[in-house]
Design a protein that fits this description.
CATH superfamily of the largest domain: Bira Bifunctional Protein, Domain 2
Helix content: 25-40%
Number of helices: 6
Largest sheet: 7 strands, mixed
Structural class: alpha+beta
CATH architecture of the largest domain: 2-Layer Sandwich
Strand order of the largest sheet: 1-2-3-7-6-5-4
Order of helices and strands: HEHEEHEEEEHHHEEEEE
Distance between the termini: 51 Å
Radius of gyration: 19 Å
Shape: globular
């Protein structure tokens, strides 16, 4: 039985009105809502296999088997966060650009959270949304995550990608995971106020639509890529990072994202370290 809570949408009329309201900022994006699903990404993958188009977004208030990166679970009390998955597909979605899908989604979410909550949110490569802890010894707290799953044909054509998003919005401290690898936080704890989830969802979807115009071939991929690379330099320039890779831990200072979305560090010996699969496990801002 689902614990009772204030649903994101109480009727089909509310959902329709919401879709109409975001339409000008997210043309072609459509929504479906359910109170509870096993996973919004499973729901979206099923819809994508059935032919659902670009921008189809599946939203739920509760998940019984939410998934995160690297096979981990994603837990969120019913009605406290935002849980949704969007389908992206189009001629611009090519194998060499797949590394940018989670990054573009995270960037869009960070922009929307800043606009709606008034706090700076950064994307910790490649898919964690974080807020910084206080100086002088800055680190981060996790506000959300991105999970991207895709289908690539035998001809190496990307048929679609499903972008799953989980955001901690109105959770109290005791409702956040106590055993998380990265200390968790919610917008409510950081701002001291309860946020309207519907307004936040509208802001996120409109930013996603903008940041994914290149997928449809109607946007400039290079300008989006370079804008995101610049955002990373402003967020993480001067940070000393320790990361976990399949080959073991590495350490170095953040340098940049490569043109393919990989992480580039400068090691203690001054040599460049380029990583396509790594998890940030510790970071410290070397700059004052």
């Amino acid at each position: 039985m689902v614990q009772r809570f204030e649903p994101l949408f109480s009727s089909a009329d509310e959902l329709e009105a919401f879709s109409d309201a975001i339409g000008p900022g997210a043309p072609g994006w459509t929504l479906e809502y359910r109170e509870q699903v096993s996973s919004t990404s499973d729901w979206a993958l099923q819809a994508a296999r059935a032919g659902a188009g670009h921008g189809k977004t599946l939203v739920a208030d509760a998940q019984t088997a939410g998934r995160g990166q690297r096979g981990r679970s994603w837990h969120s009390p019913p009605g406290a966060g935002l849980l949704f998955s969007s389908i992206v597909r189009g001629p611009g979605l090519t194998p060499d650009r797949m590394g940018w899908v989670a990054l573009c989604a995270g960037w869009a979410c960070a922009e929307a959270l800043h606009a709606e909550a008034g706090i700076e949110v950064r994307l910790k490569w490649p898919n964690d949304l974080v807020a910084l802890t206080a100086a002088p010894r800055k680190s981060w707290q996790k506000l959300g995550g991105i999970l991207v799953e895709s289908r690539v044909t035998e001809q190496l054509r990307v048929e679609y990608a499903v972008v799953g998003v989980g955001l901690n919005v109105n959770q109290q401290r005791e409702e956040l995971p106590q055993d998380a690898r990265t200390p968790p936080a919610s917008l409510r704890l950081l701002t001291g106020r309860v946020l309207g989830r519907r307004a936040l969802l509208a802001a996120v979807l409109q930013r996603l639509a903008l940041r994914f115009e290149w997928v449809r071939g109607s946007g400039d991929f290079v300008s989006v890529r370079e804008g995101l690379r610049e955002a990373y330099r402003s967020w993480w320039g001067g940070w000393m990072l320790r990361v976990r890779t399949p080959q073991g831990e590495r350490a170095g200072q953040f340098e940049s994202l490569t043109p393919h979305g990989r992480l580039r560090l400068t090691g203690p010996d001054g040599r460049a370290i380029t990583l396509s699969d790594a998890e940030w496990i510790h970071g410290e801002c070397a700059a004052p």
